[in-house]
Design a protein that fits this description.
334 residues, alpha/beta, 6-stranded mixed sheet
Length: 334
């Protein structure tokens, strides 16, 4: 089966100007003889994505995410390595690729601000050369699925951000793309609007087997929409696997809540950190590679009767921060 996205040893660098430090003399030197430096934005990056996969593509600012996405879309030409998207070489076959991919940008709109979304939908049907009858049926099906029947004839400027984002996603799906790039699709939305957008994206992907590549700093997007995460750092692949695997691999801690007969507990044990202590309830964080959960439970049982125990993984953003910190530590050491 052909991959939807395939990168093999992909690299891209840029030449940037570096200003000299100092006063007027330094600024004059910058004018007559600019000092430049080569910055490696993407460094021998390799991964593949199967058709229908939903993948979070993340990394800290400056990690190379935007550069990679621009190469996938054909906007930038790689310096080295190979890239194929839906069987096409993006930089050489950009027009052909444009008919098979869609984009959703949380901070940029493709809808005409003064016009109703339906007018933009009609225009996009012409841009993508879709048969008018087929396009009309597609519009009505998506409008119904996204529940925006009452919104498509209202000027975009009068829509809320959540309503506009639903229409943005419809606009990106009108030409039935096989691959959808999503850049911060829920930024600025309230909790309920985020949940709606996430559910709609996952449902559309599952129904039409659309491959999703999502970049976001909101871990809720990753957990609700994606099944796999690719993490890059300084242009290199740092992690490629499941979200659960990321948790297990990079943060050997869990949060444990104990409800007991005793008002408070004494848990001075290696690898156990007290988070909070309330009447009959104690919250701790346990490093399982230092002290197994069973040892903690045994120590508590010797003090009092245990009413209940709850175990939860740490929030995903903590896991990702730990991953970045570990990578920075290795980079500094080398």
């Amino acid at each position: 089966m052909q991959s939807a996205v395939e990168l093999n040893e992909l690299s891209k660098s840029f030449t940037v100007r570096r200003a000299r430090r100092g006063g007027a003399a330094a600024r004059f030197l910058d004018l007559v003889h600019a000092r430049t430096e080569t910055v490696l934005a993407v460094d021998r990056l390799s991964f593949s994505i199967a058709p229908g996969e939903r993948v979070a593509f993340i990394g800290p600012n400056g990690a190379g995410k935007s550069t990679t996405l621009k190469m996938l879309a054909g906007i930038l030409q790689p310096d080295a390595g190979d890239v194929r998207v839906l069987g096409l070489v993006p930089a050489r076959q950009r027009t052909q690729l444009a008919f098979q991919i869609g984009t959703v940008f949380g901070q940029r709109s493709q809808l005409w601000y003064q016009l109703p979304p339906r007018d933009t939908f009609t225009l996009l049907g012409s841009v993508f050369e879709v048969d008018p009858r087929v396009h009309g049926r597609r519009v009505e099906a998506l409008v119904s699925a996204f529940g925006v029947e009452a919104l498509v004839d209202t000027p975009v400027r009068q829509l809320s951000l959540g309503e506009r984002m639903r229409c943005e996603i419809i606009a990106s799906l009108l030409h039935s793309p096989r691959l959808l790039f999503l850049d911060e699709p829920t930024i600025g939305l309230d909790v309920s609007a985020k949940a709606v957008i996430r559910d709609l994206l996952r449902a559309e992907s599952e129904r039409d087997r659309i491959t999703l590549l999502l970049t976001s700093h909101d871990t809720g997007d990753m957990e609700s929409v994606c099944d796999r995460v690719i993490v890059i750092h300084h242009g290199r692949l740092l992690w490629d696997g499941s979200l659960d695997g990321l948790r297990r691999g990079y943060l050997k801690r869990k949060r444990v809540t104990l409800w007991t007969e005793a008002d408070h507990l004494d848990l001075e044990m290696p690898g156990v950190r007290l988070l909070s202590s309330k009447l009959h309830r104690t919250d701790v964080e346990i490093a399982f590679d230092t002290t197994p959960l069973g040892h903690v439970v045994d120590a508590v049982a010797k003090q009092t009767l245990i009413r209940d125990v709850a175990i939860e993984d740490p929030p995903l953003d903590e896991v990702i921060r730990a991953l970045y910190a570990k990578a920075e530590g290795r980079r500094t050491a080398s």
